[in-house]
Structures are given as structure tokens and as C-alpha cells.
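Q: A reviewer asked whether we had any structural model of the full assembly, not just the individual parts. We don't, so I'm hoping you can provide one. Inputs are below.
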Amino acid sequence: MHLDDAEIARLYAYPATDRPWVRTNFVATVDGAAHGADGVSGTLGGEADKRVFGVLRSLADVVLVGAGTARDEGYGPADVPIALVTRSLDVPDALRVPGTVVVTTVDAPRDRLDALGDDVDVVARGSGAIDWTAVLDEFTTRGWLHVLCEGGPSLHGELVGLDLVDEVCLTVAPVMAAGPAPRIAHADDAADRPMTLGHALAVDDVLLTRWVRDRA
Ligand SMILES: NC(=O)c1ccc[n+]([C@@H]2O[C@H](COP(=O)([O-])OP(=O)(O)OC[C@H]3O[C@@H](n4cnc5c(N)ncnc54)[C@H](OP(=O)(O)O)[C@@H]3O)[C@@H](O)[C@H]2O)c1
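A: Here is a predicted structure for the entire assembly that you could use as a starting point for your response.
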């Protein structure tokens, strides 16, 4: 099956919404690893996954990403705002630019906050832990209803635990990894969130799937 970008955009259109719709996008190996032997995920899904990754960004108002992923995968600025989630405020140099939003807690280290300078926009909500309801309220105020979370597994695990994930776009990559890699959502506490299948498409050996949270 061949998919062009317009077809991908049609398949992955956000639903009509008046509140932030949290979509997550991940790739996993056949045995469920969230990264390959090289410690990153970007190379796992090949051409089809790269295209979906790009189109999903083009459909989003904001990309939410954990600082671990941004550091490991070498994130830089994009055409959409990058909302970097971090407790430590260890922000990669490439993201210390206008267009980056740092999502953190109100008690984040003051010296590091000051060192970020004026270019970076800070959304600090919650004490000790990020208050996600307040963060999503801020996104609503900014008109950011199409939220795309690109991981990683720790951030995803927290959002799943809070039942804030509305949709998971998962590429299954044609590789077995074994090894110690986490799954795409990792947390200390287990959750049970029923999902319905939006679509499953085979492109060459890659499986593109989309799962929607079943809140019925
Ligand atoms: N398969 C995929 O599609 C996919 C997608 C993304 C990432 N990955 C892989 O996953 C690995 C990284 O995993 P990870 O679990 O470490 O990634 P992560 O969730 O992106 O990063 C964890 C870090 O992000 C910050 N963070 C996450 N949730 C937070 C929260 N609720 N509050 C405050 N800070 C929060 C913290 O940063 P500070 O330390 O700065 O406080 C934390 O140490 C990499 O190997 C990457 O390649 C795979």
C-alpha cells in the first residue's frame, strides 16, 4: 500500500473538539520495545513512519515532549511550538529559542529558570508534580487544542495514568529488539484504559495503527 501526505493527513485528522485532544505518537518493535539497539526510536519505522511523524506534526498546534526524549533524540525547533516537559530544567541548547515552551512545576530550580533567559516561554503549573489539568487549560487559552505528544515512555506513562491520552498513533516496526528498552508507556502503577481501533494499515512491512480511547 502506498500513502501520500494528503491521504495520511485525511486518515489522521483530529476530531472536532472544544478541549485539548491529546494524541500520542510512538513506534515500537514487534516485541514492544520503544527504542532499538542504538537507544533511539527514529530509525525503527523507516520511511512510512517518518512520513506519518511529519504529517502528524503538521496537524498539531503544539508538540509535547519529555526532556529525556528531547535530549536522546536531539530535538530542535520545529514549525509548531515544542512544549518541553522537565522537572530539572536541563533544556537542550537547540531548544533555548523562541518557539519553545518549557512545561514544569512552580518549584523548579530558580537559578536554572533564570538561566533560560527570555527567549523561552515557561508554563509552570503544580507544585512537586506538574498539574496537567492546569497545563491543558493554558493550552486551551492559547488555542492549542490539537496536542501531539511524541513521548517518551515516562511522560506517556504519566499521561496514561491520569487518563489524559485520547488517542495513540502506534507504528509497529518490522524488527525484534529484545534488550532492556521500555515499552511506549512506563509507570510504577498499572492502568487499564480500553481503546478502540481507528485504523490499521500495512505499508510495506510496517503497520500503522491508530487507537482511540474508549470513554463509553
Ligand atoms: N518509540 C518511540 O516512539 C519513542 C518516543 C519517544 C522516546 N523514545 C525513547 O524513549 C527513551 C527516553 O525515555 P524516557 O522515558 O526517559 O523519556 P521522557 O519521558 O521523554 O523523559 C523523561 C524526562 O522527561 C521529563 N519528564 C517526563 N515526564 C515528566 C513529568 N510528568 N514532569 C516533569 N518532568 C517530566 C523529566 O526530565 P528532567 O530530567 O529534565 O526533569 C524526565 O527525566 C529514549 O530512548 C527515546 O529514544 C521512544
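A: Points you may want to mention in the reply: The first strand starts at residue 21 and ends at 29. Residues 76 and 94 are 5 Å apart (CA to CA).
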